[in-house]
Amino acid sequence: MKTVLLCGGFGTRIRDVADDIPKPLIKVGQMPILWHLMSYYASFGYCEFVLCLGYKSETIVDFFRGQSGLVESLGEQPELASIYRFSGLIDDVKCNVIMADTGLEAMTGARLRKVKPLVGEDTFMLSYGDGLSDINIERLVTHHRAGKKLLTVTGVRPPSRFGELQVDDKNNVTGFNEKPQASGGRISGGFFVCEPGVFNYLENREDLVFEKEPIQSIVRDQQMDMYAHDEFWQCMDTYRDWELLNQMLKSGKAPWVR
């Protein structure tokens, strides 16, 4: 089963960390967050990737050229300016990675539609190249197959952006949690599993946002399921998120490292 990773955005909210590379290349420890994510999928045996590139796409290709393996050009296809394949090791696991330039301005739905020829007609996974989790990928896939829907999304309860206070009736602080888990409703954590029928919902538009009209239509057709995940999940949207992930890795308490 192939895994499609969206890696084409500008990542403007985290440019105080690095503004000359795509966000998926920003390092957590010694390696880019994208590498950590791919290593996590590979640890479950999912070693076939399709990367949807955009902003500074050549820097991601160059990164893989510096790894243990072979990078070769596959030329062009309609709507894909360039395609490269990396065959090599990701943390000692043999992987095949297709890197497709889906355009600078394309939104998520457009990027996904453009790589349909590279994905084929089989079930595939989809996520973003800037988030990490300890989701059990095998259980996610099993849940998707049992649900028999076109699309399964992982529902998470994200950590709060602010410290949570506990106080008594005299306003004495009795507890403080720096990054508590939100107790309200779930949000999409990415980590989708998709049937090829999802492509039928993708119009031929550069401004098509997958998370808007396509998913709304899939929901309306009752073809979307949720896999609930209550453990670790963390996106990397801000400098503070980046610091947190680096601190977790440095302390040896990184839930995504298997």
Explain this structure to me?
The longest helix is centred in the last third of the chain and has 12 residues, at 239-250. The protein is globular. The mean pLDDT is 90. The chain has one domain: Spore Coat Polysaccharide Biosynthesis Protein SpsA, Chain A, CATH 3.90.550. The protein is 24% helix and 32% strand. The strands form four sheets. Strands 1, 4, 5, 6, 7, 8, 10, 13, 14 and 15 form a ten-stranded mixed sheet that branches. It has a two-stranded antiparallel ribbon with strand order 2-3. It is built from seven helices and 16 strands. The protein is α/β, with parallel strands linked by helices. It has helices at 33-43, 57-65, 108-114, 116-119, 137-147, 213-220, 239-250, and strands at 2-7, 27-28, 31-32, 48-53, 69-77, 80-90, 93-101, 124-128, 131-133, 151-156, 164-167, 173-177, 187-188, 192-194, 224-229, 233-235. Strand 5 and strand 6 (80-90) form a beta hairpin.
Which short descriptors sum up this protein?
258 residues, alpha/beta, Spore Coat Polysaccharide Biosynthesis Protein SpsA, Chain A, ten-stranded mixed sheet, two-stranded antiparallel ribbon
Set out the fold topology:
Elements: E1 2-7, E2 27-28, E3 31-32, H1 33-43, E4 48-53, H2 57-65, E5 69-77, E6 80-90, E7 93-101, H3 108-114, H4 116-119, E8 124-128, E9 131-133, H5 137-147, E10 151-156, E11 164-167, E12 173-177, E13 187-188, E14 192-194, H6 213-220, E15 224-229, E16 233-235, H7 239-250
Parallel strand pairs: 1-4, 1-8, 4-7, 10-15
Antiparallel strand pairs: 2-3, 5-6, 6-7, 8-14, 9-16, 10-13, 10-14, 11-12
